[in-house]
Amino acid sequence: MLFTLEKNRKVVTLIELFKVVKSLNNFCKMYCKEDELFIQIMDDSHVSLLEIKIKKEWFSSYESENEVVSFNSKILTTIMGLHTLDSVVTFETSHEHLYVMFKQKDKTEKSFQVNLIDLDSDLMGSQEIEHSLEFTIHTKKLDQYFNELQAFGDTLELVHFNDAIYMRSRGDEGKYTLKITDDLLDELIVEEDLRMVCKVPLKYTSLVTKLYSVFKKINVNVSEDSPFTLKIFPNEEDEKDLLEVKFFIAPKVDDEDEFDYSEFEEKEETPKNVEEELKNYENEIVET
Fold first, then answer.
1. Cα–Cα distance between 246 and 251 in angstroms, integer?
2. Is 60 found in the same domain as 150?
3. Does residue 25 register a pLDDT over 70?
4. Is residue 92 domain-shared with residue 201, that is, in the same domain?
5. pLDDT at 286 over 80
6. 52 in any annotated domain
7. Can you give the pLDDT at residue 273?
8. The model's pTM
9. What would the pLDDT profile of 62-89 be if each residue is shown by its tens digit?
C-alpha cells in the first residue's frame, strides 16, 4: 500500500480523523482496497462504531492490492501531530511495518516506522436504514449543544413531538431541555405525525462533532429502535462522493414503560400582558 497527500487541508482532515479513531480504540485496522481506503473501528464497550471511507481519487496518489493493515492508533496520531504545513505526506507498507514520511518545503524529511500487528477482529456489515427523522446542522453548533447537555446528565434524549425537535439531559442536580428551531437546520426530513424518543449515551455523541474544524455540517439520523447515526461529508462539493464518515451509537434501553411527553406540550400564554402586570405592581408600591 502506498498513498500520498499534498494539500494541507487534506492532511489536516486525516489527522483529525485519526484523533477520533484513537479516542475510540488504541488499535486500528485499515482495509486498503484497490479503489478505496476503508476503516471500521468499534469502541471497547461495543456501543459505537465508526466507519471512514476514502476513495482513491481523494489522495494525490494511491496504490494498493487489497491489503489489510493494523497498527497502534495512538502512535500514529502522535506521528501525525508532528506534521508541519506544506509537507508532502507519504504512507507506505512493507510486510511488517508502516512507514510515514513528511517531506517539507525546506527539503527536510521526517521518517517514521510503525510496527504492524495482528488484530483478531471481523469486518462488521452495515446497512442503509430509512430513519424516522433526519436533519442537517452545523457541526460546531451541534458540538456546543452536546457539551451543554453533558453538564446535566449522561444520556441524550432526542425527542420529536408536535412537529418540533428537542434534546434533553437530566440528572440529580437538574435537567436541560433544548428546542431546535427550523432556522438552525439546513435540511429536515421527518415522518408524518412522528412522535418519538431516542436515548443514547452522551459520552459518545461529541466524538465526531469534534471534527467541526474540518467538516462544517453534519447529518443526524434518528429512529426509535435503530442506531443513532451521524454522517459527515467534505465541505467541497467535488469531494462529497470521495470521503464519507459514519458514526453509529447503539440506543439505550431503560425500564420506563412509557415516555412522558407532557413536558414537551406547548405552554399556553398567560392572558395578561407582562408589561401591564409590572406597571400595576409598580403602582401598588407607590400607593402603599
1. 16
2. no
3. yes
4. no
5. no
6. yes
7. 64
8. 0.89
9. 999 999 999 999 999 999 999 988 999 9
> For the residues 136-159, what does the mean pLDDT come to?
96
Listed in sequence order, the residues at least 6 apart from 168 whose beta carbon sits closer than 8 Å to its beta carbon are 149, 156, 157, 159, 175, 176, 177, 178, 263
Domain-located, residue 63: yes
Burial of 43 (0-12, 13-18, 19+ CB in 10 A): middle
The C-alpha atoms of residue 193 and residue 199 are separated, in whole angstroms, by 20
Residue type for position 164:
A
Asked whether residue 282 is assigned to any structural domain, the reply reads no
Q: Which three cell numbers stand for residue 24?
A: 475510540
Give me the CATH number covering residue 43.
3.10.150.10
pLDDT score of 284 more than 70: no
Q: What is the sign of the dihedral through the CA atoms of 191, 197, 198 and 202?
A: positive
Question: Smallest Cα–Cα separation from 64: which of 55, 73, 72?
Answer: 55
Q: Is 258 exposed, middle or buried (0-12, 13-18, 19+ CB in 10 A)?
A: exposed
Domain count, the chain: 2
CA-based nearest residue to 175, from 239, 263, 288:
263
Structural domain for 209, as ranges: 133-264
Rounded to whole angstroms, the Cα distance separating 67 from 34 reads 9
Asked whether residue 276 is assigned to any structural domain, the reply reads no
Of all residues in the chain, the percent with pLDDT exceeding 90 is: 74
Residue 120: predicted pLDDT: 82
Mean pLDDT over each residue of the chain, to the nearest integer: 90
Q: Which helix (H) or strand (E) holds 287?
A: helix 274-287
What's the pLDDT score for residue 126?
67
Distance CA 93, CA 100 (A): 9
Task: Give the Cα separation of 112 and 91 in Å (integer).
Answer: 10
